[in-house]
Amino acid sequence: MAHAYTPGLKVTEGMTIQKERRLPLQGEVLVEAGAAVQAEDVVAKADLPGNVQLLNVANLLSVPAEEITEYMLKPVGETIAKDEIIATTKGLFGLFKSQARSPIDGTIEAVSDVTGQVILREPPIPVEVKAYTDGTVTEISPNEGVTVETYGTYIQGIFGVGGETIGNLTVTVSSPSDGLTAEQIFPEHRDHILVGGSLVTTEAIQKAIQQGVKGIIAGGIDDADLRELLGYELGVAITGSEEIGITLVITEGFGSVAMAEQTFDLLKTREGMKTSINGATQIRAGVVRPEIVIPVVSGAAETVTEKDGSVEGILEVGSSVRIIREPYFGKLGRVTELPVELQNLETEAQVRVLRVELEDGEQTTLPRANVEAIEE
Questions:
Q1: 376 residues of the chain, pLDDT tens digit each
Q2: pTM to 2 decimal places
Q3: CATH number of the structural domain spanning residue 165
Q4: Are residues 226 and 283 in the same domain?
Q5: Does 348 lie in the same domain as 260?
Q6: Are residues 157 and 273 in the same domain?
């Protein structure tokens, strides 16, 4: 039988999951190899250099640039406070002094007798990297970070916004075709991650933010609602850095799309468990997928069979796929044909294609790069 290979979105009941936790610059690793960690534990930390500000002391004191070191009251490297006098002239008979005050809290980094400017640096910005998931530290990269390993459920979404967050999983709907509405969100959902079904609305997201909900997992979202939530049109850049007060993981696509039954049933069996999610997404080169990680508690691992990934991503006639490019973005279907011959696109490029029957019965021909396999 003809088959092909394509990336697939994982929906796996049980597997070994390894997460690299890296600092953006060299710092300090706080745990040792073999240590058991909780998702909320800080495993590494560093200090990002603060922002630099320039202060033209020569102009403020009305003195030649080459003489400013004579008027400095604080040496290079000294800590300074906002509005503190860092340079002054002697004045006339002790009167009519000119002074230069620091506009920030920070340190004096350099003094230039060429430009007459003093370089001030704001305090360092602390950066902490958390474990993200309950597990065991299996590898240490000195001064850089660690690798945390756990065993549990792993689900990839098709799209998301917002960064990493952690909370207990709560299913708010009774079926994967039910939408998540504002009326289903209550104060007791604070710090939880909510599971909807087919669609999450702007009103529901805003209510969730007000109630302190950590994250929402749903089948679909309307693109207009997403634009309203973000306040701008989302481009092709990677998501995940949005500061909207909540993390969203969309498992199916845009519009009212029922969550896949396999995904919904799996999440329902994990209700009440500590869950880590990340909305970071990049569709193009260097693909990044939003994810859901649910560690299985010790002693429960024997009840979950790890899925063999050796055939992951294989496409053949009958395979379930999700389309990841317009104009069918987010739609589900089944492969009906895998032509061997290259075919011409409108761009005149020659690519391998496949025939897909969508859920509404429509047949379409697509480049194989436009679909992802759905693991079943």
A1: 444 444 567 889 999 999 999 999 999 999 999 999 999 999 999 999 999 999 999 999 999 999 999 999 999 999 999 999 999 998 665 566 889 999 999 999 999 999 999 999 999 999 999 999 999 999 999 999 999 999 999 999 988 999 999 999 999 999 999 999 999 999 999 999 999 999 999 999 999 999 999 999 999 999 888 888 888 777 656 788 888 999 999 998 888 888 988 899 999 999 999 999 999 988 665 678 899 999 986 544 444 444 433 334 567 888 888 787 777 876 788 899 888 888 877 666 778 888 999 888 899 988 887 887 766 5
A2: 0.76
A3: 3.50.30
A4: yes
A5: no
A6: yes
The 3-state secondary structure of the chain, one letter per residue: CCEEECCEECEEEEEEEEEEEECCCCCEECCCCCCEECCCCEEEEEEECCCEEEEEHHHHHCCCHHHHHHHECCCCCCEECCCCEEEECCCECCECCCEEECCCCEEEEEECCCCCEEEEECCCEEEEEECCCCEEEEEEECCCEEEEEEEEEEEECCEEECCCEEEEEEECCCCCCCCECHHHCCHHHCCEEEECCCCECHHHHHHHHHCCCCEEEEEEECHHHHHHHHCCCCCCCCCCCCCCCCEEEEEEEECCCCCCHHHHHHHHHCCCCEEEEECCCECCCCCECCEEEEECCCCCHHHCCCCCCCCCCEEECCCEEEECCCCCCCCEEEEEECCCCCEECCCCCEECEEEEEECCCCEEEEEHHHEEEECC
